Amino acid sequence: MTGTRPRNALDALADVLDRDLAAVDAALAADYPGDPGGRQPVHTVYVPADRFGEDTVAQWGVAAAAALARHGDRLVAEVDGLTPDILDRVRAKLDREPIEDLRLDFEDGYGTRADADEDAAAVGAARALAASVAAGTAPPFTGIRFKSLEVATRRRGLRTLDLVVGTLADAGGLPPGFVVTLPKVSAVEQVATMVRVAEALEDAHGLGAGAVRFEIQVETPQAVLGADGTALVARMVHAAGGRCTGLHYGTYDYSASLGIAAEQQSMDHPAADHAKAVMQVAVAGTGVRLSDGSTNVLPVGDADAVLAAWRLHARLVRRSLERGFHQGWDLHPAQLPTRYAAVYSFFRHAFPGAAARLRAYRERSSSGFLDEPATAVAMAGFLLRGLDCGALDAAEVVDVSGADRVALAVLARRTR
After folding, report:
1. pTM, 2 dp
2. What strands lie across the sheet with 328-330, from one edge to the other?
3. Residues 267 and 328 in one domain
4. Which of 125, 264, 311, 350 has the highest CB neighbour count under 10 A?
């Protein structure tokens, strides 16, 4: 037949290898499925559960806009790459979607309360969340952080989780983008147990299989390095049975566990960088996403105090983005202006070059760079992230890169 060649010894060997490596091929495909597709929020906002109401998101937006109105004239000089045009985008974002991901906190941000009080807070917060979803005012991503599976808090945490999930199920089901945060994980077995908990919740409340997803909070040294010398966080990801959506770094618990003084506890401490580097390698190719932690230096007080906190926050957000952490935590409404200012500046600054290089790669023309397929994947993913958060507009992305969302998703290998 035209175009064919006789089989040779290597063809026969390839047949043998296909058979011998079939199990390995299947395991790699299952364990490392690649990008899950869809949007990743740029932050997670933690709100004590008893302080959450149907209008909380709007209140945060108003408070953030007010802080920006008071001090925004000085912000341009504080954030690298921020321009008045980008600041206008930030104002629009605060009006349109001030919070991308919201976590109702029943753990450290809530504390220890009487059982009756926490029961009431769990039901009340879930009802308020359901009402905001029905009203169209909820963020696109929501969830709760319950108390850990450590023995001291296990039963209380499970009760709260059951009350929240049950109340939401009764109100129509879990909201799209709903995720549970599993804190203070120190053993692979706790993650495997969380899978059993998720299955039990689905059975108890008539939810579909796989409806309860969770993220793992990495805030203990044992999660990074186990007693056997292995990186347990990598095993944790695979013990989640496909339910783990993300790894979140816990800045202050992790730092304190290492004996780092309070004044030195920060997202950019060398100990933090080590933990996050291990996390980054652990999730590569798995489809599990990463989130950096928070800064507890809040932008409150006089103008100088606010600007100093903004300067720090913006620098840390930019630093995380440059290191491949596209999400972080925010703890106060006045952190929203610098979150979006830093994120938008990051994308706006790099957009022209990334889009032009991607066009050159697709059209096989010269850009001054010898870009490989893996770099094209990264550039397409960069443009999609910019579109998702509002830093970039669809028309300008098509104009400069020549690719629309569909083409970018294919290039970024977001096909699931």
Report:
1. 0.93
2. 289-291, 244-249, 214-218, 178-182, 141-145, 101-105, 43-48, 328-330
3. yes
4. 125
